[in-house]
Design brief:
This protein is an alpha+beta fold. It is about 20% helix and about 45% strand. It has two helices and seven strands, in the order H-E-E-H-E-E-E-E-E. Strands 1, 2, 3, 4, 5, 6 and 7 form a seven-stranded mixed beta sheet that branches. The protein is globular and about 55 Å long. The relative contact order is 0.20.
Length: about 150
Amino acid sequence: MMSVQEMSDRLEIQDLFARYCFAIDERDWDALDNVFTRDARIDYTETGGAKGSVAEIKAWLPVALERFPAFQHMVATTKLTLDGDRASSRTILFNPMVIPREDGTPQTFFIGLWYRDTLVRTTEGWRIAERYEERSWTHNVPPLTPAPEIMPQG
């Protein structure tokens, strides 16, 4: 049987993952400050993205995602291992995205991937300290130009 603390931790982490999805889908890049630790490392390279700090990723995301007029991030089915104030997880992401074709009509495609995370309990609550985006499958993805390079933060 789960303790009250474990139930609370699991619910807080579930809410953390939802906050990440809403921050991305609403293009509210500053909301990511309440999702990641200040020194978090984020790695989207396996799916064609960038790797960097929270500040670098926050600067990169609006440029990388501007070509997509619509997308949604839906997380589900988390395998979570709690260890005191640390946790590790692997979570399914289902990600439909829309991109304009050359003639301007929209094309919807789908991406399935895993988020592999290291989480830590902070004074502000649970935060993601490391996120690795692992590719699983794609459907109907058109040829895409590579994502832009990450701009170093100074």
